[in-house]
Design brief:
Dihydrodipicolinate Reductase, domain 2, Rossmann fold, AGPR_dimerisation_dom (chains A, B, C, D), NADP+ binding (chains A, B, C, D), homotetramer, alpha/beta, seven-stranded parallel beta sheet, 14 strands
């Protein structure tokens, strides 16, 4: 099948191109970039100098002729304009931005922009592959999750579902490599400002907060309130969340580990780390794996959940392709069998 | 006055040598290293090739002839052997290890070693300069704090004292550059294992936990239970703690900031960051500053405290010299007026 | 076909496992490690926790039952012991170490060890795929090149062949990420010793010097003398060589570029960068590409050749698999079609 | 004495502020920034939040009232406008940009801008402290050297002076951390574009080339032709040059080392590394040291000179203060006695 990418010059798109170019059932035909239309792909991405793609302008109507599947790697606010027309023409849309992740009023409040209509929101499935596969398989609009919510929900949902964790008071401390900030050109993103530096940002105000709460509630079955503090870590890729909350009485660590092991028994991309192990970002780098771990602290009656992903793969392009595989009925791992790079 | 360092080949010692060599009132006379005795300092530290020091073996008796002040930068378990004799001979000891930080039974439990006697523990002061200055000024044994406790207590103590934070349930998420792990030679500390990697370690079990709880209780005035998760971040220096706990009713963010500003009004090394600012490790790098910030989340009724230090300066050698200054009645900033290096 | 790796716990082996596990014609059956025999692979490489391999002891006799192809990722001196028996049993050996790269007396001088016999040396082909393919296709012992020689020869050989560069006086300035130093545990390889550091090592004495000279002579057709200075750069992967020499009269930059373009017209893994471009290590990271560029300085009559590779892929495991593909008559790119990771 | 900085928001200026604030004989009174006039210093540099400076607009006339000494850390082209008026009013100017380094026609050719008049060029001294001290002591305009020329000339000059190296054909391979590129905001300077990346730039065309040639000629006593290739290395600070050239007959390594040792016998900031040592950038980080080393390769008749500096200290702000000290007759090391930071 033919695929296109809208918003082709960011880091998420570089990963989509890498993955789709080696996907057994997909041909990448079209790259749309409003800001660089007319340029060659290799000008934006010299590491892809062996490829011959021109960056194009486009619109939903003409794009439908070139692609069966459209990935949106553009900023939030673009996909909501293109998706209705594409889906009405029978195309499948996978959106890496936030447009279709929240209900309309929450989107307005946190993103300060106009959401898609309620009808189109109702057509979309949330693309956290491991927990929303049934609706993903049927949807023509898939709202790929944010990078932090992907990691956080992977530990939160099973703990909430079993009542191990009380959703009333969840603290999520996130740490991300710098590619999560995208490729936009700002003084605060210069190498010398980030290298050998570590700091929190948007404390309590990051837009991924309502996304975590919404899907923790839906899939975890508990109304959940999250305090989320993200932090920038001086590395390119990799994201770790550490999730804290009061543990319900009676649970032991082996029991809690068993809950995780069962939850992900059938999931090819989730690895529950060994009892004396912790998730490490380098252990998943370049792959679609999510490594999860858990610790139960008797002293403070707290459960600590940990999850590590590559923010550009399982946190973006990789999960988008995993969702495509689910939607098309292809093997879930098609195009995603590369191992982590180490070191 | 003459100073000596016991355990002279680690990273903390490199900082002590850097600071003491430019201290207006101190002459560094003697460097003790049991493992490298007989070698020249420049073999251990080529960056100090302009200095002429030999690394010596030593014992408390002979050392008292050469030094009025002895810094211990050796592993835990060494200072407790040397301190009694040195102090009986009228010397001042500043210990960067953990021997004198805890009561005996807690030390035994967390450090699996023999603590100093209760008598000698009673002679020591805890060297968190900003909060324990009165006892530091009188003590001949100063237990320099651990790096994580230094940062964590700097936000915890004022919040606990004012009852803003409930000590029953404090979560501390710590992140540290790799120099905190010292210079010992292990596969897991190799460049390629750490670079572009990020991971938690000793979750819930780190030895700094009881130290935080003890001094939060003493100086904060509340019995405090801490869950502490440290994480390794791929950089040399810098440490950030993010402290979470339920906020007491009625407090507003401006009020909480005011509490911090008042607490540190007279402290030359603590900077409360602006309302829209966050502490950043690079903002203190190479200096004895501790930058602190706070956020109050109405949604989740949580207070978030943040503190950044250079783990080798305010978290080790710098605070040790600050304590020496307090003890000797010298200006608190003597030898410590260097600014952060940026970038 | 079944493959084995001898020396399975180093970084080169991690890459071999990554590549071979997704190779369409190879099954990796056996991992030999003398130092960790009996352990599970995931103990050495937690990032491969989804694989079930035990690390085995072994000997050439029993190994021949399990593998048609044997890769040696062990230190120099091992393969020379195993190869004769394996080849006599009809197996194909690809050696990532230096045993089979040099003539016996040069090996003795630079490696201070015993080389294979002249007979066995005569059975081997040098595995610089782009320049020695005819002999690689027929050999049962393939001496995979060193990482620096791979990059250096890729620019040297075409320039020497055309007489653009005078082999009498070639300066090669090499820079490599730290994975080139392997995984052995030394103080000088600790994260804090390498991060934010840059330095030359083994100036004029690096063992890759005679390898460069030998194969520049054979494939470039000129007796060549090389001064080689390698430098460590604080990054995991990536290797750049900058090659300098006096340019022969009459050549212009477009002509020299044309020589490179023609030399690599048919090579799927060599990309000659555009006229205003330079090779960058990140542009090849994780891939088997070698990016080459050239500059001709009129002022100083010097030609500057540049080549960038991923030292663990084209500089080690990737080229080893490329050589296997050549040897077996498979498509040269089988298993090696992954794109560079960016960023 | 009172000092001012023109161009106060770049990385070189941050170092000047750090050094001058602890200088025993200087008071920093005025910070000029055309682009950020009206802002507080702490907005540009949050790491200096404890300082109270406003960034000002200014002109040479009013500035002369506030400062006896003016440092220019602005881009090339600014100081030539300000210096004449300031010097006529009796002020001392130290220029970290290139305006006063070259003769007029060379400046025009390489910098594409208008140089100062020949009269004003004739008033200036080149500020390579170790080799031009006599003229620095008398000049009211000091042209602080570029970072690469500082390191390169420190090995080149003594080798040329003694005829060890033939100036006809010198290759200089430079490597620099990213702070050398300044703080200007470009996509190619983003963290993710530089981290884990290594590449040459401006091959054969870097503006420091004629500066190296000019002062190698003047102080080395030989007309010198340089081919210079700089490379970006993923670290904040640190610069290494590796200098190659044909060695004259008859020299041995011990003799060549002796030449260096004698050349720098009296220089407090130049350390000739031990025979088995190499200069390392981390060994000088944060200090005004320049570490130099040399190797003589019998096989290829080549001499290899190496020099490491902190590009922002000895390569910029530190040497500027060293020059001020020389000019004022203060101790050469005043304000510059800080040791390297390690690690």
């Amino acid at each position: 099948m033919n695929a296109a990418i809208v918003g082709a010059t960011g880091y998420g798109s570089a990963e989509l191109i890498r993955i789709l170019s080696n996907h057994p059932y997909v041909t990448l035909t079209t790259l749309i970039s409003s800001s660089k239309a007319g340029a060659e792909l290799r000008e934006a991405f010299p590491h892809l100098s062996h490829l011959n793609y021109s960056l194009e302008e486009g619109d939903p109507e003409s794009l439908a002729d070139k692609a069966d599947i459209v990935f949106f790697a553009a900023p939030s606010g673009v996909s909501s304009q293109w998706v209705p027309s594409l889906v009405e023409q029978g195309r499948i849309c996978i959106d890496l931005a936030a447009d279709f992740r929240l209900d309309g009023s929450t989107y307005r409040k946190w993103y300060k922009g106009e959401p898609p209509s309620d009808f189109w929101l109702s057509q979309s499935a949330y693309g956290l592959s491991e927990w929303f596969a049934p609706s993903i398989r049927k949807a023509n609009v898939i709202a790929n999750p944010g990078c932090y919510p992907t990691a956080a929900l992977m530990v939160l949902i099973p703990l909430l579902k079993q009542g191990i964790l009380d959703g009333d008071s969840v603290v999520i401390d996130g740490k991300s490599g710098m590619s999560g900030a995208g490729r936009s050109v700002k003084q605060q993103s210069l190498f010398c400002e980030i290298n050998e530096n570590l700091f929190p940002y948007q404390v309590g105000k990051h837009r991924h907060t309502p996304e975590m709460e919404r899907y923790a509630g839906i899939a975890g079955g508990q109304r959940t309130t999250v305090l989320f503090t993200p932090q920038i870590v001086p590395m390119n890729r990799g994201l770790l969340v550490t999730v804290y909350g009061p543990v319900a009485k009676g649970w032991t660590l082996p029991q809690v580990r068993e809950v995780l092991l069962e939850a992900y028994e059938e999931s090819p991309f989730v690895r529950v780390v060994g009892e004396d192990q912790v998730p490490r970002t380098k252990g998943v780098q370049g792959s679609n794996f999510c490594d999860v771990g858990v610790y139960l602290d008797e002293r403070s009656k707290t459960v600590v959940g940990m999850a590590a992903i590559d923010n550009l793969v399982k946190g973006a392009a990789g999960q988008a392709v995993q969702n495509l595989n689910l939607r098309m009925g292809w093997p879930e791992t098609a195009g995603l069998q590369g191992f982590p790079q180490y070191p």
